[in-house]
Amino acid sequence: FQTSTLGYFVALQGSAPADIDQDGNVNSVDVQYVINCVLGRPVPYDCDTDGDGLVNSRDVQRVINAALGAE
User: Which pLDDT band, with edges at 50, 70 and 90, does 15 fall under?
Assistant: First the structure.
């Protein structure tokens, strides 16, 4: 993986967008991070999985689908 700084967060290139915590697995932890972000709670990761500049229900659904193996 290569790292690059994009604005205020560091992204790992080559990792899945739904892998919020960049640990190599998309699971319930990633789902919880993106839900917390939507609810306005502080999250130490970028949760915008589709790159539209917003964190919303579409991002939550993408992470859930990926965690279930549907994406």
Answer: confident
Tell me the C-alpha to C-alpha distance, in Å, between residue 61 and each of 13, 21, 31, 58: 22, 16, 9, 5
CB atoms within 10 A of CB 66: 21
| Range 12-16 average pLDDT | 62
Amino acid at 53: G
Query: In a 3-state reduction of DSSP, which class is residue 53?
Result: coil
- pLDDT, position 12: 45
Is 5 in a helix, a strand, or coil? strand
Distance between CA atoms of residues 48 and 33, nearest Å: 11
- CA–CA distance, 71 with 68 (Å, rounded to integer): 8
